[in-house]
């Protein structure tokens, strides 16, 4: 493969961003980029046959072009946000216009950089795995760089995906574990919110109040963990008084194998991700 030096730096102040695929994830990314001022909508483009999807992007200034080829030709950075089962055909179809001048990005789950680079014909590719909270600007994303992607490329993608949450960088071999934790993790938390609310109802709370308290409690606890920098075990101890209500509840969670169950869920999802990527 070509050396990283072969990549041509993208002009930071003038680059254009294109989305191949105009689904919910692409919309979340594009909307975040515009709302945070990273790029104006006029420098972003996509293409879609569905009028509803076109309108969604046009509502915050994104340009709608007639074809995916036109989107690639108009863009310096191209984000592939299509279903994993069709991305090979899409990349191969666009290969003639996927020049080394363009930084390519994939958010398709389970599709390796090795395959993406082979289909595109060059390795200036970055793979990013965001999760569904991107829709509310709170994504947990992880990126891995292809062989010819540069540090400047990585910084640019960090800014783009930083507009919809937080982004980390990791070796691609960790992506199955990332899927098991942050990719599938929101579903675990939704289940926890529902269970906490059900517990509140069982204890006598009205359903609406119980659900509101459960959701805000998890949001607040997560904010404390990220903003204070304290280990979650320390935060747990700070709210746990001797012989009090919290330690009584924690005792029940430990008896039910709460921590072990969550750990097992992450490991099982990571294993399934690995199985699916090998199909």
Automatic annotation (TrEMBL):
Known EC number: 1.5.1.2
GO cellular component: cytoplasm
Domain named Pyrroline-5-carboxylate reductase dimerisation: residues: 172-276
Record's subcellular location: Cytoplasm
Name this protein carries in UniProt: Pyrroline-5-carboxylate reductase
Main location: cytoplasm
Enzyme class: oxidoreductase
Biological process terms in GO annotation: L-proline biosynthetic process
Residues reported to bind NADP(+): 20-25
Keyword annotations from UniProtKB, A to Z: Amino-acid biosynthesis, Cytoplasm, NADP, Oxidoreductase, Proline biosynthesis
Pathway: Amino-acid biosynthesis; L-proline biosynthesis; L-proline from L-glutamate 5-semialdehyde: step 1/1
Ranges of residues in domain Pyrroline-5-carboxylate reductase catalytic N-terminal: 16-110
Pfam families named among the record's database cross-references: F420_oxidored (PF03807), P5CR_dimer (PF14748)
NCBIfam families reported in the protein's UniProt record: proC
The reaction(s) this protein catalyses: L-proline + NADP(+) = (S)-1-pyrroline-5-carboxylate + NADPH + 2 H(+); L-proline + NAD(+) = (S)-1-pyrroline-5-carboxylate + NADH + 2 H(+)
Residue numbers binding NADPH: 68
Record family assignment: Belongs to the pyrroline-5-carboxylate reductase family.
């Amino acid at each position: 493969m070509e050396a990283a030096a072969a990549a041509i730096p993208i002009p930071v102040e003038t680059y254009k961003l294109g989305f191949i695929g105009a689904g919910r994830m692409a919309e979340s990314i594009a909307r975040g980029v515009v709302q945070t001022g990273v790029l104006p909508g006029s420098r972003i483009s996509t293409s879609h046959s569905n009028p509803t999807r076109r309108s969604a992007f046009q509502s915050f200034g994104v340009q709608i072009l007639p074809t995916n080829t036109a989107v690639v030709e108009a863009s310096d950075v191209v984000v592939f946000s299509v279903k994993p089962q069709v991305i090979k055909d899409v990349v191969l179809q666009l290969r003639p216009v996927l020049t080394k001048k363009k930084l390519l990005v994939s958010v398709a789950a389970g599709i390796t950089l090795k395959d993406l680079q082979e289909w595109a014909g060059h390795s200036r590719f970055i793979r990013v795995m965001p999760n569904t909270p991107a829709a509310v600007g709170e994504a947990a994303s992880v990126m891995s760089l292809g062989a010819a992607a540069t540090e400047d490329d990585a910084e640019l993608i960090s800014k783009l995906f930083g507009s919809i949450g937080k982004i980390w960088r990791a070796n691609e071999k960790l992506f199955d574990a990332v899927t098991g934790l942050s990719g599938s993790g929101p579903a675990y938390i939704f289940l926890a919110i529902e269970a906490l609310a059900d517990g509140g109802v069982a204890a006598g709370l009205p359903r609406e109040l119980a659900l509101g308290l459960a959701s805000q409690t998890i949001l607040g606890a997560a904010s404390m963990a990220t903003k204070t920098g304290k280990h979650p075990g320390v935060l747990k101890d700070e709210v746990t008084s001797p012989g009090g209500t919290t330690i009584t509840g924690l005792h029940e969670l430990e008896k039910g194998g709460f921590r072990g169950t969550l750990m097992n869920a992450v490991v099982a999802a990571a294993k399934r991700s690995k199985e699916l990527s090998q199909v």
